[in-house]
User: Fold this.
Amino acid sequence: MSTSAMKKSRVKRARAFETTAKIITGACLLFAVVATIGVIGAIVYRGAPSITAEFLSAMPKSNMRAGGIWPAIYGTLALTFGTALFALPLGVGAGIYLSEYAKRGLRTRIVRLSIANMAGVPSIVYGLFGLALFVIVAHFGKSLIAGSLTLACLTLPVVISATEEALRQVPQDLRQASLALGATKLRTVARVVLPAAAPGIVTGSILGLSRAAGETAPIILTAAAFYAPLPNSPFEPVMALPYHLYIMATQAVKPAPHIVWGTALVLVAGVTIAGVLAAAWRSRQRSKIRW
Assistant:
């Protein structure tokens, strides 16, 4: 076989592999899109008829077989706010230190590896950790603050990684230009680097908080109650949408199905809207940055 024929054969095989890879990856994307649309479509179809003003604002009645889910919505919002209160300052601060101040070396690599591993720890393990530390040792009991601290531990690796990754995307030229003009390291980070990285940090933080809002396992052991009025202090248990949905779907006496599907729709809609708003805000802010 001549050299020209061998070259044509290699090109032909490369194009065949390229086409095969395109078909396989396209099929994976199509499956993911269809599965997502199917799940969301089923929830919307079954849950939409339940969404009324009374359903969103009333207290549960008749052992969860009637009434609304307002305490669960309030509890989920309170847990998410508490999680943000504890996780964001610590997570963003740790991400800034790792990106801007930490020296490259074995210790830093170990810290980064530990943070990455923390992100993969099952959520029930965080629940057991929260039960041991916040509920029992700290004497918070099963309460809003214990659940918020547990969810903050769960969210921290996501916030740290998102912050560090966003800061890495800022070109070094901006830092060097600021330092060359006489700015200190702290002023450079605060006035130049952080504003440029803000879209990535905020988006990653919102996605992390969205995950926390939908978690069930950690709050089962630390914060959630089957039925509770609106809390008067952070040291009282709260109802939450994920736990409310879990307990209604698994209890022996099945509640009205429309309440189960309505609760699922409210939870999915809340998490989805937060993610869409975060992505839209990030896209808008990115369009204003030029480097």
In short: The beta strands are 60-61, 66-67.
